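Colleagues,

Please find the record for the two-part complex below.
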Amino acid sequence: MNQKERKIIAIVAAFAVAFGVTPVVNAMHIMEGYLPPKFCILWGVICVPFLVAGYFSIKKTLAENRKSITILAMAGAFIFVLSSLKIPSVTGSCSHMTGTGLGAILFGPAAVSILGIIVLIFQAIMLAHGGLTSLGANTFSMAIAGPLVSYGIYKLCQKMNVNKHVGIFLAAAIGDLFTYCVTSIQLALAYPSANGGVAASAAKFLAVFAPTQLPLAIIEGILSVVIIMGLETYAKSELSGIGFLKRGEN
Amino acid sequence: MAKTKKKVISLLIIAALIAVIPLFTLKGAEFGGSDDAGSKVVSQITGTDYEPWFTPVMETWIGGELPGEIESLLFCVQTGIGVGVLAFFMGRFVERNKKENHENKLV
């Protein structure tokens, strides 16, 4: 990132903070029109610096190594596939995965915000799933908060010398779960319970989302590991290109 | 190589089982979306049926709710785009590897 890019990010971040100081608020696929307008704008503004950082991060990755565009496309496609598959869960309702963990591990959390918002816009317009008004909130939970946690867990596992595949599994699974936790909190902030306030309300939303999402998070972890294993076998040069594999390793 | 293959296959089987088992153990469950379940909790907390203040643009364009079959079509399109891209690049990588191995042998 050069200085000019850094400046731009700093400016939009300051802009977001200035607008975002209203009590910290909102959440994952929230339905269209379900979030009060105030919250829609707030979450949208919070996303902007991340998206700008993501744009520069992708630009930098591609400038360094043109070939990494194939892996980037695959990470995006992985999000497309996983977020379109509605899978039955133990609670008797369906949910879908996020698929953002893989991209976060390969390209860092900032780049995923761009990949994620593409998928969310597609779903909001074509499928009436999620929504344009809740786009900001959904982007924050699925394309920003989840990937950040994934990336953090992956790095932590690396530091602690946990087996790489186990680390990827944990990162993807926990990132997926965290996305839904953020959604619950976002909804709770918009709809605090009459008795008990935000916390009670958050617990209620979590009770709906968490048990449904847990098995799916495990599936997402497994699928992410499988894709990484495939890439490690067949696309070593690309993975070294984006710094995922160190040269000579494996 | 053979070890990786075995690992991948067993992982995929586990993933498929986790996805399918609820369907058989919870007979008669509705399997509605958890996003919809979320909206139910909203009405529960606010005490009234919450009226969304904005309708999805698609529903405005076609003047009604998207028919279920069409919705699954669009979801399939999304899956198709994703799988297409993944499979295309994966196929290229696999072939490239084969070719490289072959060339190495010749040299």
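Confidence is low (pLDDT under 50) at residues 20-28 of chain A.

Comments are welcome before we finalize the supplementary table.
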